[in-house]
Amino acid sequence: MLFRNDIQGIRGLAFLLVFIFHLNYNWLPGGFIGVDIFFVISGFLMTSIIIEQKDRSAFSFYDFYLRRLKRIFPAYLFFIIITAAVGFFIYLDRDFWMFQKSVGTSALFISNILFSRGDSYFGSRLEDNPFLHTWSLAIEMQFYLLLPLILIFIKRKYLTAVILLLIIVLTAYTDISMYMTNENSAKYFSLAARMPEFLVGSFFSLRFKNKIDLGKIRNNIISSVSLIVLVLSAFLIDKNTFFPGTIALIPTVATAGLLVIGDNFISDFFAGKIPTYIGETSYSLYLWHWPIIAFIRYRNDDYFLSVNEVLFICILTFVLARFSYSFIENYFRRKDNSKFYRYAGLGFVLLVLLTVFLPKVAVINKIPEVYTSPSFGVKSHDQKRTEVFGDKHSKNNKILLVGDSHALAIKPFLDYIGKRNDFSFTTITTSGLPALRGIKRSEIPSYGMKFYDFSQQFVKITEQSINRNTIILINCSSFIGPKSIYQSVKKMADTLKSGQKMVVFATFPSVDRDPVKINRDFIKKTSRKFKVSVRDDNKAALKQLAATNKNVYFYDLSKSKVFKNAPFYKDTLMYYNRTHINDYGSVTLSKDLEKDFMSFFRPIISGENK
């Protein structure tokens, strides 16, 4: 197949769309369609190459896969090694496990499977992961494994029809999955959901092998419309759109149109020097831009970038990409297979050594776990078992604590007070959402779906525990978002058995940044001022619930003076992320509120009415 500068230029456009989106999604909400443009181009080119070789009886599976590896893997392995080496000095010890998994799955081209599972609830976010963008390369390599099987083993006269059928079936499957299960995030990283985008390129390659030539004027109109559709898609599609699926066919078909339309001024523009220059380095640009952005976001714990940071990202991305393109990509493209194999082998050995030994070096700066993650009461968190805390010899033992990770965070608070004030309590808690019946799946955003599905597995054991106890304590991050959480708690309050009582907590405040990332120690080092926020709407709803039900009581944890200088108390870290107090913070809270809480709680234990 003849080399086409215009395709390089379209690759350049694809990178710029992704780059702008990654810098700030508000600037170009649908800029992620740049990845879909890459997919269409890959499907188009690989199909053209395979069919041409098949027609000449010159196709070899071994040669095809080796060429793909030599084109992609050298720069990719170099990027992974450098990013891994830097990452172990930027990432916190608590996040190393997720970081190591990202390194390993990226090297094996299966990172899309890891990222489809979403964020770790207590760990780093996907938007801070320097390997997140490798999901697209993983899917591309997986597609390359399948495409030759389709093109070689299906007879030529059936190929176009089969590929069209695959596009329709897989697109329908993706739409149905997203609309019925709301699993947009999982489908976004799915090979099956993304294959139609590659296959659109394959279809146009087969159907319009010799391009479409309708005359200069009509060609210009069609190519202009195709480009306008791409630009509009980049502005009108956003992260809340059901995407991929049918919507993804809009920019992908528009891209395919640009690839097959005959002589036109849009193609002439993309064949120009600047678009071609960006396009020829687009692979290395794509590799390097994201880890730089992710490391800055992780270190600052802030999505938004300053002007100076944007300039730094642009310059460093270009420098690293140019080096990678000139000395890695082009070098191995011209070298024989033996040098490639030696490089790949040595690179893998180095990568293994890095991922094994660098965490051991970085552990020198490890912050004690008690300050950086939940460590108390975790055996009854996300586990189908309960634990008992407080004064275990007390007769006041018919007390149950349930809720989400905010309930987990106050286990040390209640344990400290219980041991000193003659009561014990049983606990079972779950991440993300409390394990209560009646929470509506339709109200859960796609990123929280896995937490909803997981917590709902604990509903039965939670209900059994509620039936065995007299006093039910509930704490969670929000009782009114989703709204059905409040309705579930209200229904529970309305159906309490005779003698049962419920205590609802207004939880502790949140802060605007992760203090562990900002401070990087448990003793205060940063001069940064943190913004402390209290959910007043949440508090008002709980007060109303307690006011209208004689068996429901309200207690406000956020009133404590220990939060005055949050996330620190006496220059010691008391939060392990933006929204959760650590064990030290929980015990510190108990020491401040013990008298006040017991004056509130003692009448409830003794059975006195409001």
UniProtKB/TrEMBL annotation:
<dbReference type="InterPro" id="IPR043968">
    <property type="entry name" value="SGNH"/>
</dbReference>
<feature type="transmembrane region" description="Helical">
    <location>
        <begin position="243"/>
        <end position="262"/>
    </location>
</feature>
<feature type="transmembrane region" description="Helical">
    <location>
        <begin position="274"/>
        <end position="298"/>
    </location>
</feature>
<dbReference type="InterPro" id="IPR050879">
    <property type="entry name" value="Acyltransferase_3"/>
</dbReference>
<feature type="transmembrane region" description="Helical">
    <location>
        <begin position="220"/>
        <end position="237"/>
    </location>
</feature>
<feature type="transmembrane region" description="Helical">
    <location>
        <begin position="72"/>
        <end position="92"/>
    </location>
</feature>
<feature type="transmembrane region" description="Helical">
    <location>
        <begin position="158"/>
        <end position="176"/>
    </location>
</feature>
<keyword id="KW-0472">Membrane</keyword>
<feature type="domain" description="SGNH">
    <location>
        <begin position="384"/>
        <end position="594"/>
    </location>
</feature>
<feature type="domain" description="Acyltransferase 3">
    <location>
        <begin position="6"/>
        <end position="321"/>
    </location>
</feature>
<keyword id="KW-0812">Transmembrane</keyword>
<protein>
    <submittedName>
        <fullName>Acyltransferase family protein</fullName>
        <ecNumber>2.3.1.-</ecNumber>
    </submittedName>
</protein>
<dbReference type="Pfam" id="PF01757">
    <property type="entry name" value="Acyl_transf_3"/>
</dbReference>
<dbReference type="GO" id="GO:0016746">
    <property type="term" value="F:acyltransferase activity"/>
</dbReference>
<feature type="transmembrane region" description="Helical">
    <location>
        <begin position="31"/>
        <end position="51"/>
    </location>
</feature>
<feature type="transmembrane region" description="Helical">
    <location>
        <begin position="310"/>
        <end position="328"/>
    </location>
</feature>
<keyword id="KW-1133">Transmembrane helix</keyword>
<feature type="transmembrane region" description="Helical">
    <location>
        <begin position="340"/>
        <end position="358"/>
    </location>
</feature>
<keyword id="KW-0808">Transferase</keyword>
<feature type="transmembrane region" description="Helical">
    <location>
        <begin position="188"/>
        <end position="208"/>
    </location>
</feature>
<dbReference type="Pfam" id="PF19040">
    <property type="entry name" value="SGNH"/>
</dbReference>
<feature type="transmembrane region" description="Helical">
    <location>
        <begin position="7"/>
        <end position="25"/>
    </location>
</feature>
<feature type="transmembrane region" description="Helical">
    <location>
        <begin position="132"/>
        <end position="151"/>
    </location>
</feature>
<dbReference type="InterPro" id="IPR002656">
    <property type="entry name" value="Acyl_transf_3_dom"/>
</dbReference>
<keyword id="KW-0012">Acyltransferase</keyword>
